[in-house]
From TrEMBL:
UniProt signal peptide: 1-27
A Pfam family that the UniProt record links to this protein: Peptidase_M23
Protein name stated in the entry: M23ase beta-sheet core domain-containing protein
Domain M23ase beta-sheet core: 331-432
């Protein structure tokens, strides 16, 4: 009787990995590892190898950084190429961010399913033990060594079913258990694959973000070289922003009193007239109009860009235009909950007429898109463009922080980054809905 009892005890541990862990802990307690007074030559050699590997990784990183710096410097000589790389890299970052979000969502679902299956199998451990024991007796085979994995249990079931003279009722129970174990094994393989993909995507987005940072720095270095009084203008803009109480007052103040913003407004007005004339001469307007990365004015009139513009950040819309703002008022724009550190890109072509902090909006960016249209983006932690600068659709302009930077009326959760976007026509907030692209395939990337 001793062998069958032992077999049952062994099989009962199929879903209880704690038995193995406990036995190992007990073994370690009874026979503690001998203490070594001196470091062995093998340990010294291993440490030397680890140090050498660390040095190799550092050298590789330095070489990659130097190569990237040289590449960026070369690109900087060609404005069109620099713009192309900026927009393409920003788009890559946005794409990988979306993939990471999707993978994380799938993993949450898969992990939940695995927990459910494990709980179901664990609740029927007695039945599994009974079926395994009966099958193994029928097959006259010794049960496998201590079973601690679903794969072991599944193999044991299959072997015993093939070798044993199994009655129909017992076979039915065994096949059901085998099916569930097989599903669990396949599920675990899927989870492992998803985790590997997630790690790969995170490495890729870090690499792209490093490249993007270098590209943005080169763009701003060139901008600073062109605008000698940039720092003075930015300081004056912050000072002027403290003299007004609302967004429209800020826009008016900037475009009237600040030289770089006034020039930007003039260019926007002139470009709008030219765009309208082009539109009248040609009915063709669509994503193809945005392909010229060397442009210094909007590709098409803002009014003609309906259905073409991308959202400026990856995120979930938590408040829409015209809805409640949470304090009894009406929302004048849209609010997008984002992940910490998300990349913010421009939804349209336009000139920067304000870039900096403003009251309860956190960091605020205002673009003059021409034709009396302004686009306001708020809630970022850092902005990487300056007043007077022309930016292209899809160009990286800011980065989200780790918490909300806007007033509580614009965010549902103060601990979550929230981007606020508002469109205005001749000073009046308008619904941005008609301008957003219906899907990713239609979005403009510059």
């Amino acid at each position: 009787m001793r062998a069958p009892v032992l077999n049952l005890l062994l099989i009962a541990s199929v879903l209880d990995t704690g038995v193995l862990a406990a036995s190992r802990a007990q073994a370690q307690t009874v026979t503690p590892a001998p203490q070594t007074a001196a470091v062995s030559p093998e340990a010294i050699k291993q440490r030397e190898q680890e140090l050498e590997a660390a040095r190799a990784r550092q050298k590789s990183a330095e070489e990659a950084q130097a190569k990237l710096k040289a590449e960026i410097t070369s690109l900087g000589k060609d404005r069109t190429q620099l713009n192309q790389q900026l927009i393409d890299t920003a788009a890559n970052v946005r794409t990988v961010e979306t993939k990471i979000d999707d993978t994380e969502a799938r993993l949450r679902s898969l992990n939940g399913r695995e927990q459910e299956m494990r709980a179901s199998l664990d609740s029927r451990r007695g039945d599994i033990v009974e079926v395994l024991a009966a099958l193994q007796r029928a097959g006259r085979r010794t049960p496998p060594a201590l079973l601690v994995r679903p794969e072991d249990a599944l193999q044991s079931l299959r072997t015993a079913m093939l070798l044993g003279a199994v009655v129909p009722e017992l076979r039915g129970r065994a096949e059901k258990i085998a099916s569930e174990l097989g599903e669990l094994v396949a599920l675990r393989k899927t989870i492992a694959t998803e985790r590997d993909q997630l790690a790969s995507d995170r490495d890729r987005v870090r690499s792209d973000q490093t490249r993007l940072t270098a590209l943005v720095e080169e763009r701003q270095r060139q901008q600073a070289a062109r605008e000698k009084d940039l720092d003075a203008e930015n300081s004056r803009a912050i000072m002027l922003s403290k003299q007004v109480g609302d967004l429209q007052g800020l826009i008016t103040k900037m475009e009237q009193d600040l030289q770089s913003a006034a020039k930007a407004a003039e260019k926007a007005a002139e470009a709008a007239k030219q765009a309208e004339a082009k539109a009248a001469a040609s009915a063709k307007s669509g994503p193809g109009a945005f392909k010229d990365r060397s442009r210094t004015a909007p590709a098409i009139a803002f009014a003609a860009a309906k259905g073409l513009l991308p959202l400026p950040v990856n995120g979930n819309k938590i408040r829409d235009f015209g809805g409640s703002d949470g304090v009894g008022g009406v929302q004048k724009g849209i609010s997008l909950a984002t992940k910490p550190g998300s990349q913010v890109t421009t939804p349209c072509d336009g000139w920067v007429v304000y870039s900096g902090p403003f009251r309860s909006y956190g960091q605020l960016l205002i673009l003059n898109a021409g034709g009396g249209y302004h686009v306001l983006i708020a809630g970022m932690e850092r902005i990487s463009v300056n007043i007077g600068q022309f930016v292209l659709t899809g160009e990286p302009v800011a980065t989200m922080g780790s918490t909300s930077q806007v007033a509580s009326i614009l965010a549902t959760n103060a601990s979550q980054p929230v981007l606020y976007v508002e469109f205005r026509k001749d000073g009046t907030p308008i619904d941005p809905g008609p301008w957003w692209a219906a899907n990713e395939g239609e979005k403009v990337r510059g």
